[in-house]
Every structure is written in structure tokens, then in C-alpha cells.
Amino acid sequence: MASKKLFSILVPVYYNELNIPHTVPRLQNLQSLLTEYELEFVFVDDGSGDNSLQLLLEEKEKDNRIKVVKLSKNCGSMAAIQAGLHHVEGDIVGIISADLQDPPELFADMLSRWEDGNKVVLATRQDREESFSQKAFSNTYYFFMDKLAIKGYPQGGFDFVLIDRQIVQELNQINEKNTNIMSLIYWLGHERSVVPYTREERKLGQSRWTLSKKIKLFIDSFVSFSYVPIRFMSLTGFIVAFFSFLYGMFVIINALTGVTNIQGWTSIIALITFLIGLIMIMLGLIGEYLWRILDETRKRPAFVIDEVFK
To answer: For a Cys staple, 80 with which of 12, 142, 144, 177, CB 3.0–4.6 Å?
Structure first.
């Protein structure tokens, strides 16, 4: 009789002490639903300052299928997922958040899609039980990802995903910093399937997904996967130079013919401040690229693992 395939569930954890007593049992209950698989649970504590780690270790004492990876500090959810991918042992790996906004039971449908030959199964959000501002930011982000970075990117986005062992190995080889793991998974281009669902409202705890982290993800995604910002700067420079040339010709012709007497400092100062502001924006965009190049060349790890509890 063939041995069962191992299904690893990877969960990044950051300030989730209120969720863990509910998340762990709900994930464990999947065993009765997925009888054809053995389960492994890999929790990555991303430098939580609450009791998340202690609660995870208590759960581990009761279930030897649980593995806990402790990072030395808060490195971000993407780095936490990267760290976890180096410690999963499954033939298939599911990635899900710890706050139970994504239904773990959906893994059953996702695994059937994997059995059909899809190496990547994306659970995409067709709707969200979230505030208007959260929906607006997410929809805008994924719209630009589709139009300007990765064509065909799911408009509802995804961070609830199931991937084949081959994808795990490829991601571990890439090992980029300042990137979006989900976008990398999509960028790899393997056969994939999409499972739509509605993301539920967070019922316990407070989200640590702050505006500054959202902005960083936005910048990281476009710097990593799109040349549009650089092309935008080049196009803007060409347009400004073209109109500056036309304006210069206009001034010269009027000076020679005397048709219009151009005078006054206000318009000149306004034009200069506009151009300086434009240059500063362009330098900032270039700086974002240069910083990430510097960060990669220094070869510092995206995460530091303090301890692994097996």
C-alpha cells in the first residue's frame, strides 16, 4: 500500500495570541477532512512581542506534527514565509494566515485541484468583509499589479495558496529580499488553478498590517516586477524637454517679432519649482531601485532564525 503524501501547512505568526487557541484546533481538524494525507504544521513566529510563541510551544507539546520556527526579530510576513519554506517537508505546501480570515477547509478543494495536475492553486478573493479603505487599497494595488507589473494577476489578489514541492524548491533558490512571495509564485508561471472565496472579517485581535507596511509592499512589488517607474521617468523627461523646447522657440520668436512682451518672475519661479519637484520625485524613484540593489549586494539574509522547535 502506497504511503500517504505529506501536506505541510505554513502559517506566519505575528501578534496572534488571541487567534492561536482557535487557529491550531481548526487546522488540526482538517485531518478528518483530508484522510488521504498526513499533515505537518509549520508556524513561523515573526518576532511577536506577545505570548504567541509560548502558546505555540504549548500546542507543540500536545501534537508532534507541529513545528515552530522562531525568528530573531520581526522581519515581515514575506520573510517569515520564506523562512518557513526552508523548513517544510511536505509534498504539497499550503500557506495561510493565522487570523482565520481565510477558511482552512478550502484546502480540500485546493488539494483536489493539485491532484488534477496544477502545481499552484490560488485562493483568490472575490469579495472581502473589510472596511471600505482596506478594500480600496487592495483593489488599487492588484489593479496596478495586473496592468503595470504581471499581466493576468488576479484582481482580487491572494495570499492563501497551495504549491507543489517543486515550487518550494524554486522559491528557496531565488531567495530574494524586499519582494512579494505571492507575486513570485505567480511569476514562475507554472500550471495553476483559481478557487474564488470571500475573505471573512477578522474576529479576534488587531491587524498589524499597517499603512507603512502596505506602502512598502506596494513599492517592493513594482520595483521587483515592473520597469514602468523607470519608463515613466524617461517618458516624463522627454515630454518636459519637448514642451520646454517649444516654449523656448515661442520666447525666441516673440522676442524677434515683438508680438508679445513676456515679463514677470512668477511664471518663471513656478516653472522652476515644478521642474525641481519633478526631478526630486525621479531621484526618489531611482533611489528605491538603488537601495534594493545595495541591499541585495550586501548578501545579508532576509531573515535570521533564532531557534527551530521540532
So the answer is: 12
